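Recap from last week: sequence in, structure out.
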Amino acid sequence: MRRTLFAITLILLTPVIGAAELSIEAAIEQRQTAFKAMKGDVKRIKEAMQAKQPTDSFAFSEPAEQIVTNSKSLLGTFVAGSDQGDTQAKKKSGKSGRTSKQGRTH
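Predicted structure tokens:
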């Protein structure tokens, strides 16, 4: 329930936030909150898929809708400099600049 209220709040504030760029700290915090919520929703979908018993469509639709809601809240959160500081942003390395979570270049 808290997650739903937070997601609704973020959606309602997105036009306001888009109009005035977020501070770096606020952008990082909003992004991390949205990604954590989406991680939980993906876990719920995975658990429903792995269940040995029949599952109703609500087990998939509700967390999927939350993922969409949280992904929309990410608009405007990738402000310049928000890849620095207290963030889990991946550091670029290698020729391609792409890295995995373990830091290996693809």
